[in-house]
Fold:
Amino acid sequence: MAVIEIDHLTKDYGHNRGVFDVTFQVEKGEVYGFLGPNGAGKTTAIRHIMGFSKPQKGNTTVNGLNSWQNASDILRGLGYLPGEIALPEYLSGTQFIDMMAKLRGIKDMSYTHQLVKQFELEPTGNLKRMSLGMKRKLAIVTAFMHDPDVIVLDEPTSGLDPIMQHQFIEFIKVEKTRGKTILLSSHIFKEIDATCDRISIIKEGRLMSTFIAEDLRNLSVKTYKIELKHEEQFNRFQLELNHNTCINVQKVDIHKKQVVIQVDNRAMNELITLLANYDINFFTEIKFTLEDYFMKFYDRHVSGAGGIS
Structure:
């Protein structure tokens, strides 16, 4: 069951800015990664999900409610962490938390206090003087304080130090086990890779790829680096590889007697049999990462993105 739906959404701000015919769904209990650099269109799409902006074409819904027409109803039950935080500077962090609690009708503040402790938030200071990291932690607390079932996060760890980034990732993993539905928009590979069930890559306002994260981690085609001990054997090994249709040579370093190859898991026995005839210094797998796949769409020197098999 789709909780968040974006259906052929278009918002054109001109000069190739905006989102163009974007379609995806976030299923109940799923953590969905929305991956792209700053300016790719992630925040524009999220603003439409939240009902802050009206689509030129298409529509967005949350729990079946049209975002633009039912924004106030959606916001009451949803947790939202904006990418750019604008807080009332005349309040202290404690006063802001109390204000948000009243707006949401929260009577029992025990869960809020738990979040404050977990994220090491010092809320007593004036918001005007708070660091970016402390403001981000305050925004996290207020986004989750009413324990929402649906959460939209836009660059959630921006401004957090590495330790707190790790803490946030572990927190999202726990929320995932509790059945929360989460849309996580980010340009940080680590947090997307560690938490998300499915991922969409966006570039210049257009979706380039949508895939199951586990499929990327378990690709049938693997990449290996091999270094041979002897030059004569290395030359012979190259000739054999050139005549082997099951092994794809990616890179050759003659001086180091190294070769990088790709081979399908089904041909691994053939590769091992071939390697048994040579003296090898090392044979190691090069893991294909989310960043590698992402860069196929953004690296100008790489032609063709390909798909996930």
